[in-house]
Amino acid sequence: MKTVVLVGGVGGAKLALGLAHVLPPDDLTIVVNTADDTWMYGLRVCPDLDTIMYTLSGLVDPQNGWGIAGDTTKLLEAMRRYGEDVWFKLGDQDFATHILRTRWLNAGHRLTSITERLAKRLSIPQCILPMVDLPVATIVDTVEHGEIDFQTYFVRYRWQPTVKSLRLDGIEKASISPELQQAVESADCLLVAPSNPWLSVAPILSIPGLRDLMLSRPIPRVAISPIVGGQAIKGPAAKLMTELGLEVSARSVVAYYGDIINGFVYDQVDHEIEVPLVHSTRLNTVMLTDNDKVQLATNVLEWMKSWAKTPS
Amino acid sequence: MKTVVLVGGVGGAKLALGLAHVLPPDDLTIVVNTADDTWMYGLRVCPDLDTIMYTLSGLVDPQNGWGIAGDTTKLLEAMRRYGEDVWFKLGDQDFATHILRTRWLNAGHRLTSITERLAKRLSIPQCILPMVDLPVATIVDTVEHGEIDFQTYFVRYRWQPTVKSLRLDGIEKASISPELQQAVESADCLLVAPSNPWLSVAPILSIPGLRDLMLSRPIPRVAISPIVGGQAIKGPAAKLMTELGLEVSARSVVAYYGDIINGFVYDQVDHEIEVPLVHSTRLNTVMLTDNDKVQLATNVLEWMKSWAKTPS
Description:
2 copies of one chain form a homodimer.
Chain A: E1 3-7, H1 10-22, E2 28-32, E3 38-40, E4 43-45, H2 47-57, H3 74-81, H4 92-106, H5 111-121, E5 127-130, E6 137-142, E7 146-149, H6 150-156, E8 163-169, H7 178-186, E9 189-192, H8 197-205, H9 210-215, E10 221-224, E11 227-228, E12 231-232, H10 237-243, H11 250-257, E13 263-267, E14 279-283, H12 290-307
Parallel strand pairs in A: 1-2, 1-9, 2-5, 9-10, 10-13, 13-14
Antiparallel strand pairs in A: 3-4, 6-7, 6-8, 11-12
């Protein structure tokens, strides 16, 4: 079952790892949010791409769910000695990724080919695609600081500022890459990981033309709820929903995705949700162990197969 | 006594450190070879500038005489994991220097201002000047490999290839920076450190106009011999001299510098050298301890003072 999954960072990486255990490598394409990407010290840092890459290669720090296990921060300490304002944690091994990526970007390569190259060199057999080749940046309009870039909001201010609205800088110039086009066109199902819908998935869905391309596919298009029992598993999703005036529930997620999805997975702790016009199911969606990840991937794939030939 | 000293890497750094102990900070300008500079992973690495900077800031690895004491190589290990051909040692802390420098170069700053900025941030009060702002590269023509860049010759092949000749790529576009012009014009003496004359000092002296500018100054212009007792203290100087058909002796160094110098310091182990038309003296030039460095700096400065008003 050729699967395309849209993901953000840590939450998405868990599902991606589960899927990678279950599917033949050629059947899995992971489309990654790049609107969190940033420049640090002149280097291009792609936090979500790296989280996916480090997770699938087994390098990831199991505690944080991002970064490389056992990584040190000597380079950053030297930056601090140079008087640099060091607030974004980058490990010494991690820097190698950013340095190689930046060198290749400066040499004119596309982020898609660079990502493929890095993943290959880490022996990752699945296909990891950045959502776009050109830079797109989530800009967060906050009550306290006005407009700030995503990492300033997320890391520097630990997502404490109150969000008024979000916009995507550069999205009008973004376009579907040939690789993404091909992946969606040949997919047997499209999954939306339990990543933050507004911060991680919205940028992907905002690529001009992608919504229509997804809608044109008569296949299961399933989102897994990141809201479980009225709370976010991790990160600012619940806080953000409140600030955006939304009910913190899986229902709001279904409403947000609208007709993009025709199937929805919510957690077993949640009450039955009325999901108009879409298939839905209750599963354990909380992925604490590797077994949870594999189990969720297996269950979702099997459930989709059960109705794949009769999508609503 | 306003002193301008021309230096390469490790040997030059020793003398620079001695001079820094003896002279008021404002009276010392260190002009550094940049023809060894190279691009590594898209980052600009300036080995001699860094050696001087790390030495004067006290960060330097006392064993090697270059790099930062206690530095680790986790980033390089990650590069190796990515399949990169890792042959040029760069420490994790060291990388911070190259990343900042590259960022500022890419932002359009001159190497001279970047070097000043880095040195200031390490609280170095002396003036460190790169010999030029634009890239100049020593190209080594070898019997075994044909033309190779300096670091390939020096580090990758550990200066084992047989040198046929040397040339400086980009030297015709190089020009004296305003800061270098000003330093030489206001100097009370010009020193040439016991660095490799052909590999470290020649590039500096090859900057169009610098020879004439130096010759125009009626002040002590003194070189310290890097050849002691027919041997190089460190590095390929003696081997290179043989390959270039020169006698391995302080005499060859005097001959090479010609009228650029009007004073010469050679080591006490050497026999009296006939130095036509220039002042000369025998001193302990081997700098093993910090005290040796301070002593040599003191002795050279005092000796120059003794004849400064009657240069030949």
